[in-house]
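User: Show me an example of a complex going from sequences to structure tokens.

Assistant: Sure. Here are the input components:
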Amino acid sequence: MKRHFKATKREPIISLINIVFLILIFFMVAGTLSANRPSGIEFVQVEGLECCTDEEALDILADGTLVLKGNTLASLEQFIAETESLDATIRLRPDRDYPARDLLQRVKVLQSAGAMHIVVLTEQVS
Amino acid sequence: MSLKRVKQRRRASITSLIDVIFLLLLFFMLASTFSKFSEIDIAVASAAGNGQSVTEIATLRVQADRVFCNETETADADLTSRLNDLLATGTSGVKISLAEEVSTQRLVDVLSLVKQVPSLTIQIEEPS
């Protein structure tokens, strides 16, 4: 009787492992590891734009705080000083509730500092 | 006796295997995201006109819940067809000006609508 018990217990464990492995592989393949995103930011959502770009960008929170790679920046001037070349594309990722006029002011500042190409990153919704 | 021992060792390793797999699974479930990002150009033009006549440049005044296209109120759904009409009558670009209360989401919504009309140049007016 004991042997029977053991035999029936081992099988569901193996099928459990199979399923867990499947889920594990799904998450490893389908998900990308999220790079240090600031908490509390709600990305601008857009349908139908060309997918997908690199997600490294200067985050702008709804209250105007600038966050680059997890570090809060004191001002846009600091970002300009720390950026090696403004010729490359400058990537901004503002919160969706950030006032558009303030965004334009900042884009203006970047442009007058010499940035040629500025893009806004938006989250793709399908 | 020796056979039984081998069996017991195998069973123990399966349990720890499950533990490790569960740990990995938890890690990937918590750490992965599925959001994809796309990008949209944004460039601010100075408020002063650059010599092009009014017929060539249509003006878009964007407010939080409506858009004025050449001072005519236009529903968001009709904006693309309206711009296509203007394009057919010789308009080559649009100038977008924003009301105070417009959010970034709204701006990007309107921009992506305007981008659906090909070959229109987009200027965003500097906020005064």
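The lines above are the inputs; the final block is the predicted structure for all two components together. Chain A touches chain B through 55 residues (CB under 8 Å).
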